[in-house]
Amino acid sequence: MAQAMRPHSTNAGSLLASDGKPHPVPDTLLAVTAVLGIIALITSIWHNLHLLSSWTGLIGILTGAYGQYVSETTRERFALILGLGASAVGFFIGMAHGGLFGGILG
């Protein structure tokens, strides 16, 4: 029960860091992945925006994968998986609507 006697720190450092330390790189990658995932997912609704949805989805997948590699806490990984999922769905629907170079090359 030693942990019950330990005072809790009010300086959390990061909303997603459960260890109380700031993690600026994983938090930035998380924000970028989430924004790109949302853009890819929303723009995949319209088939004429396949270039935007496929490219933002691909970049979101890459930033999310690197974010998973450098993340240190479970909270960061959970939020990164949500962004990765949105990026992947937007990417795959964008690919189905015309792909990365559809209409420009070929």
- The fraction of residues assigned to DSSP E strands is under 5%
**Helix share, percent:** 55-70%
Low-pLDDT sequence parts: none
Rg result: 18 Å
Q: Give the CA-CA distance, first to last residue.
A: 68 Å
Biggest β-sheet description: none
- What would you call the structural class? mainly alpha
Shape: elongated
**How many beta strands in the DSSP annotation?**
0
What number is the mean pLDDT? 86
SSE run? HHHH
Q: How many helix segments?
A: 4
Q: Would you write up a description of this structure?
A:
The chain is mostly helical and 106 residues long. Helix content is 65%, strand content 0%. The mean pLDDT is 86.
Ordered list of secondary-structure elements with their pairings:
Elements: H1 2-5, H2 24-43, H3 50-70, H4 74-97
Give short descriptive properties of this protein.
65% helix; elongated; 106 residues; mainly alpha
Concise summary:
The chain is mainly α. It has helices at 2-5, 24-43, 50-70, 74-97. The longest helix is centred in the C-terminal third of the chain and has 24 residues, at 74-97.
